[in-house]
Every structure is written in C-alpha cells, then in structure tokens.
C-alpha cells in the first residue's frame, strides 16, 4: 500500500500473476473527515487512525482479491462437476470484528499486561518510586513488543507480509532518491526507512516512558491503565513529531540516536523481498504518483 497527500493505492497480485490496483482519494475516507487533526502534536493520533483504517482496508482488499480468485476457481470446478457454485463473501462485519479484536488484544498486551507484571515484581526488585516503576513498565512493554514481533515472524504468511513491507521501503527509497522506478534500482535500495510504522511504534513506546513519568502514578491498577489510555494521543503526538523531524533532518545526531531503536526494529518487521514483490510495490507507488500529478484517480 502507498499513501500520498491526497490519494492512496493498494496493489495486490492475483494467483494468476496479474497485479490488481485499487485507488481512492484519502478525502473520501474517514481520514478526510478528520482533517482537523492534521496539526502539530495532533497528527500522531491521525497517524494511528490512518494506520488502522487504511491498513484494514488494504488487508480487506487483498483478502477480497484472493477470495474472488479462489471463488472463481471453485465455481468453475463446481460447474465442471455439475454442482451449484457456493458463495465466499468477506463482510464488513467480519472486518469490523477483526479490527475490534485486534485493538482489544493490543490494549491487553501493551497496556494491561505490562502494568500487571510491574505490579507483580516491583517490590521484589525494589522499584519503589513512580519513575522506576514507569521505567520498568516501559522496559516490559518494549520487551513484549519485540518478543511478539520476533515470534510471529516465524509464521510463513507473516514472513511474506514482512517481505512486502521491505518492498514498500525499497520503492519509497528509490523514489526519494530521484531514481527511475525500476525493479533493478529498487532492489539495490535499503529495506529500512526512517518514517516506517515500526519506527513509529518503537518511538511511541519510548515516548510513553517519558510522558507517563511526568504524571502521577495511581496505585489502583485500573485507574492507572485508564490514565495511560487517556494519555496515548499525547504520546503518539510527541512520537510522530520526532519521527517527522528525523525524516527531514537525517543528519542530526541526537534525533538519529532517539529514533535508532525504531530503525533497528525494522530488522524484525522487514525482510528482503523478491523481484515480484518489489514489482507490486512499484505499481502501487506509480499509481499514487500519477494521481497526485493529475489531481484525480488514475486508471492502472
């Protein structure tokens, strides 16, 4: 998936090898209605919504392309056998339930679980001050994230997702260097990029330690979890501005040091892609570039 200021495009390869591209104006989505959030220190919240909304839409489109191809093959086989073809529809309800479940798991893993573990071990290790407990919270949160990502990377389908993630970065790096958007040029580029969503997540986790340490730490675990959730927009806002600044001034040592853990984490969430995968990423990028240049959705 590639997103520009006004348009985004999703490219997906069908089982028959053809690349299908879907494109929409960003303004036609929920994000367009939340344009008032596109302000300093509010943009982080918009970035989170952007990732959830467009990411879910991209996954739904990819699943639909594959399901349609499989349904066509099944229908052809059923007709050949003299049977009635069945239906295989991916409903909005299924997508919504998946998104809600993902959010619930995210809150449980990265908010509730670190708080519970800190509560469990804080007296044993002598973490008595609010600062030391917040630091412990943050360390546990980051460890859970890295262990989780490392564990799922062993799954074959997730590994392919990470390869496509690397292909997106290679395509963007090729474009930002002003090189011709060819497969050969893209394959030479790095699969790491400073404005990656993984970097954003890691910087959010680091920024959370700082922001949560400024505020009092309630003893009641439920109140503390609620406070952390309320402060998430502020945390996301601070993290996003740092990532944005780091992407624009890559030679600033202090900024590079702060975002470096996020860059390192991309070694887990990206893999070297194949030429076929880079081709798909380039198709999505070209589609967005054409639309941004013409001001309207371009056919692909």
Explain this structure.
Strands 1-2-3 form a three-stranded antiparallel sheet, with helices on both faces. With 300 residues, it is mainly alpha-helical. Helix 5 (156-176) crosses helix 10. The longest helix is centred in the N-terminal third of the chain and has 38 residues, at 43-80. Mean pLDDT is 82; it is low at 84-90. The protein contains ten helices and three strands; from the N terminus they run E-E-E-H-H-H-H-H-H-H-H-H-H.
Order of helices and strands: EEEHHHHHHHHHH
**Main beta sheet:** 3 strands, antiparallel
What topology, given as strand order, has the largest sheet?
A: 1-2-3
What is the SS-derived class?
mainly alpha
| Average of per-residue pLDDT values | 82
The shape, in one word, is globular
Residues in β-strands, percent: 5-15%
Number of strands: 3
Number of helices: 10
If you compute it from the alpha carbons, what radius of gyration comes out, rounded to the nearest whole angstrom? 21 Å
Unreliable stretches (pLDDT < 50, length at least 5) are 84-90
Compute the separation of the termini in Å. 14 Å
Share of residues in helices: 55-70%
């Amino acid at each position: 998936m590639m997103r520009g200021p006004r348009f985004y495009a999703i490219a997906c390869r069908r089982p028959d090898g053809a690349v299908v591209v879907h494109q929409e104006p960003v303004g036609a989505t929920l994000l367009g209605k939340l344009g008032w959030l596109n302000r300093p220190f509010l943009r982080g919240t918009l970035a989170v919504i952007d990732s959830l909304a467009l990411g879910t839409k991209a996954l739904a489109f990819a699943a639909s392309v594959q399901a349609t191809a499989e349904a066509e093959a099944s229908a052809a086989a059923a007709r050949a056998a003299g049977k009635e073809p069945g239906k295989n529809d991916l409903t909005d309800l299924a997508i919504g339930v998946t998104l809600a479940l993902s959010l619930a798991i995210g809150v449980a893993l990265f908010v509730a679980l670190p708080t519970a573990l800190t509560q469990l071990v804080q007296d044993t290790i002598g973490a008595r001050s609010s600062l030391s407990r917040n630091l412990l919270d943050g360390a546990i949160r980051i460890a859970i994230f890295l262990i989780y990502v490392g564990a799922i990377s062993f799954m074959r389908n997730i590994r392919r997702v990470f390869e496509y993630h690397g292909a997106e970065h290679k395509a963007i790096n090729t474009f930002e260097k002003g090189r011709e958007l060819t497969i050969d040029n893209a394959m030479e580029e790095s699969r790491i990029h400073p404005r990656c969503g993984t970097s954003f997540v890691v910087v959010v986790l680091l920024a959370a330690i700082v922001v949560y340490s400024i505020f009092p730490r309630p003893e009641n675990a439920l109140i503390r979890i609620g406070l952390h959730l309320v402060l998430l927009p502020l945390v996301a806002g601070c993290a996003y501005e740092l990532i944005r600044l780091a992407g624009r001034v890559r030679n600033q040592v202090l900024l590079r040091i702060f975002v470096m853990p996020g860059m390192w984490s991309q070694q887990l969430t990206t893999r070297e892609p194949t030429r076929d995968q880079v081709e798909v990423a380039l198709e999505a990028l070209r589609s967005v570039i054409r639309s941004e240049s013409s001001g309207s959705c371009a056919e692909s």
